[in-house]
Amino acid sequence: MKIIPEIRGLVQYGGTVLPEVTIEKGALQQIPLYMESKRFKNVILVADKNTNEAAGLQLSKILPHHIDHQLIILQPNQHGQVLADEPTLIQLFAEMPPFTDALIAVGTGTIHDIVRFIGYKMNIPFISVPTAASVDGFTSKGAPLLFRGMKQTVQTTSPLAVFADVDLLAAAPKQLTAAGFGDILGKYTSLLDWKISELIGNEPYNQLASDITRRSLEACVSNAEMIAQGDADGIAILMQSLVESGLVMLLLDFSRPASGGEHHLSHFWEMDLLDKNEEQLLHGAKVGVATAIISELYKQLGEQLDVEHLSIATPYNESLRKHWGAIKDLIDELPDPSKLRKLLKTVGGPTTAVDLHISNDLVQESLNEAYKLRERCTGLFLINQFKQSSITYPIDSLPI
Ligand SMILES: [Zn+2]
Model confidence over 146-184: pLDDT tens digits? Predict the structure, then answer.
């Protein structure tokens, strides 16, 4: 499976070179030849205990002897999780031998973030070997890292090539696939938010990028059953969608098409767990749940906001009145929260904040505060601006 050719239409926009992408069964077997073609001599494979067992060991066995290669296994924290924080970054930095000329990230999103950051800082290219279709960040260049317990996304570099072996991805734990599906489902609200930001806030927009992202989203939704069953074709569709979403972000050099209010809620919850030093939840699991919450909220906004009698004066009132018809149509097109939860259930992911063990208080707080995380004129921002005009927030335990 190859990435869709339309993506090349965005290249001129970002001026970035696209990584080579291979999404197919047995893609792992193609890596040795690729590494030889690039004349890499000293290669480091970076994995954690699980992804080493899933792919690292296998890959180190098939790399030829004349390519000097070593495995670095990243250490987990007290919760058994590898985080992209200072101790882990230092571990990789300290264990990497001098003269390394390529890094191979073998794992999920966090391992990629660690590798892309260190590779970028040391000017060493990296190859992506995803072990689960769990997130859309493999091909982007933003690396969310934890510095002194605070999350900060650093712009680094994209991989030279991606080898997504569908056999490996299909064998990954089901909750990781469900998380990847949740991250894709979030595009319903991120695309709406992006359009609202353009209409109301006059923020940068790109129709082609929006169309590509929507097509990826729709491909996953119409193949949800196949993805749920772990069918190789379904998993390949999900992975392709995740890769394409990452490429769109890479080429535009911002995350708007793939990250809106649902991601702001997810980040808010993540920071709360970090503050309490609790176990982290899968990114896409949070995003999927947050998408249904945001959809509920937007449906209320669509029904209740009276743009002719806005409660307060803001710089956006005029453009909101002007574009309200178009925004309302887009909100009507947004799937109902019950449909979104049903889709999440189909793939075996959590559907409500209760499933994630996130309290109603935190959901409520995030709905009031999370829009401040980014200076974007999103739907969540508008709701917070006009919330005195009788917008009420949903209780997050609605039946599916
Ligand atoms: Zn995401």
Answer: 999 888 999 999 999 999 999 999 999 999 999 999 999
pLDDT-derived band at 373, boundaries 50, 70, 90:
confident
- pLDDT single digits (tens) 213-269: 999 999 999 999 999 999 999 999 999 999 999 999 888 888 889 999 999 999 999
Q: Which residues of 330-347 are buried (b: 16+ CB within 10 A; e: fewer)?
A: bbeebbebeebbebbbbb
Q: 15 CA distance to ligand 1 centroid (A)?
A: 23
Ligand 1 center to 289 CA (angstroms): 12
Six-digit token string for 133: 């279709």
Looking at this protein, which amino acid is placed at residue 91?
Q
- Is residue 57 over pLDDT 90? yes
The domains found in the chain, sorted by start residue, are 5-172 (3.40.50.1970), 176-204+254-385 (1.20.1090.10)
Distance 136 CA to ligand 1 centre (A): 6
Q: How far is the CA of 134 from the centre of ligand 1 (A)?
A: 9
pTM comes to 0.94
For residue 316, how far is its CA from the centre of ligand 1 (angstroms)?
28
Going from the Cα of 185 to the center of ligand 1, the distance in angstroms, rounded, reads 10
Q: How far is CA 22 from CA 29, 30, 111, 121, 295, in A?
A: 11, 9, 19, 26, 34
